[in-house]
Amino acid sequence: MKLLVLNGPNLNLLGDREPGIYGHESLADIEAACREAATALGVDVEFAQSNHEGALVDALHAARKDCAGVVLNAGAYTHSSIALRDAISATGLPVVELHLSNTHARERFRHHSMIAAVSVGVIAGFGAAGYPLALQALVTHLGGSGKP
Ligand code: CA2
After folding, report:
1. Cα-to-chain-centroid distance, residue 139
2. Is residue 29, in this structure, part of any structural domain at all?
3. Rounded distance, CA 90 to CA 148, Å?
4. Which atom from ligand 1 is nearest to the alpha carbon of 75?
5. From the candidates 24, 61, 79, 99, which is the catalytic residue?
6. Minimum CA distance residue for ligand 1 atom 9
């Protein structure tokens, strides 16, 4: 079973700036943690990032062919993108919405998610540790034990 971990705009800058909000880990560190978690869970993982809304839509469409589910940190597109919401609905893939920060403890415009209603669940506020948690949640949702 393969899972996609998909990251949206500006997350390529992680570790560089705003560590007080997003932590000190780089996206490469997060990818390494996801690969370690996936091995422990007995699943394969594909890891991707794009700053472009259409490329994220394309990645969701492509995932339909060979992935069982998606961990999606859509970044700021979370709060604005009807296209991403429609792509999640169209693919029918189970998606766990993920955020490093607790978006509900931040500006009001971050409180609304366009994709939460079409996701199986949301993890927010646990920093980089949220990624392995989201993979575990997805495997459990898909009926796996969460153990190899
Ligand atoms: O908390 C999250 O994971 C977010 O998805 C991050 C997005 C933000 O727009 C969402 O509301 C919540 C922003 C990612 C920006 O990443 C940066 C990384 C380093 C320096 C500055 C921004």
Report:
1. 14
2. yes
3. 30
4. 5
5. 99
6. 76
**H and E: helices and strands count for the chain:** 5, 5
Catalytic residue status for 77: no
Atom of ligand 1 nearest to the CA of 73: 5
CATH number reported for the structural domain that contains residue 123 in this entry: 3.40.50.9100
**Cα(143)–Cα(73) distance, integer angstroms:** 22
Instruction: Report the nearest atom of ligand 1 relative to the CA of 12.
Output: 18
pTM: predicted TM-score of the whole model, two decimal places? 0.96
The whole domain housing 94 covers: 2-141
Q: How confident is the model at residue 19 (pLDDT cuts 50, 70, 90)?
A: confident
CA of 134 to the centre of ligand 1 (A): 17
Asked, for residue 147, whether it belongs to a domain, the answer is no
Where does residue 116 fall: left (phi above 0), alpha (psi -120 to 50 degrees), or beta otherwise?
A: alpha
Distance 65 CA to ligand 1 centre (A): 28
pLDDT at 18: 80
- Judge whether 22 counts as a catalytic residue: yes
pLDDT for 54-96, tens place per residue? 999 999 999 999 999 999 999 999 999 999 999 999 999 999 9
Q: Is residue 33 part of a domain?
A: yes
